[in-house]
Structures are given as structure tokens and as C-alpha cells.
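It is worth pausing here to work through a concrete case rather than discussing structure prediction in the abstract. The textbook approach is simple: state the sequence, then state the predicted structure, then interpret. We follow exactly that order.
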Amino acid sequence: MFKGKTTRIIITGRAREKFEKLNAVVENEIKKGVKKSRSQLLLRAIKQKIEILRRNPEYGIHIPKDRIPKKYVKLYDVNNLWKINLVGSWRMIYTIRGSKVEIISLIIDLFNHKEYSKEFKYKRN
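Step two, the predicted structure:
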């Protein structure tokens, strides 16, 4: 519950593809006896942040409206965007949707810092 409303997390689009691929990599590593890897750390971090979002959808860093990539507006009808920093300079991007009874955190992208900088058009100095 957040502000008296139930919360739900949905992983969609590119985020879902990357999350499923990461799950498969980690599952394969575990089968091979690998106990600690970057993939496992990243997956654990994503799952921990999802649980935090379940309790507080506004946990992340709010991205100003003028920085929202047009593709997110077109693909997901986004009017707000949030970022969560993960391990290894990875980022999780999500939007918040709601009604009178429910708040949905829609996770729409997962990427490393280089991909994030490119997507949001941050220039390197």
C-alpha cells in the first residue's frame, strides 16, 4: 500500500526482454556452480529495487519532463519518468500510473550507463 492504494509492478518492453535474458543467464550460471557474478549482482539489485517500488513508487529520481525521450511518450504514453541507479552503473527507468484504487510502476527500460547517456542525449565532456 502507498498512500492508501495498492501497488503493482509491471515490467514491459525492452526492460522485460533484458530482465528475462538476465534471469536466463543467472539460471545458467547457477547450474554451472557460479556463485557470484556481475549478472547475479545486477539481478539481485533489480529485484531489491522492485520490492522498494512496491512500497514506495516515488522512490526513484524524477526525470524532468523536458528530458523524457520522445520514444517513451510515443510507445508508452509517458507523462512522468523516474530513474533508479543500480549496481555497475546500470539504470532502471519507469513511469507511474494510477487510479483511485491502484498505483502501477511500469518499468520500461534497463540499461548500462553508456546506453542511458545515449538514450537521454547526455554529452560526454
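Step three, interpretation. The chain has a mean pLDDT of 94. The helical segments are 13-31, 38-55, 70-76, 113-119.
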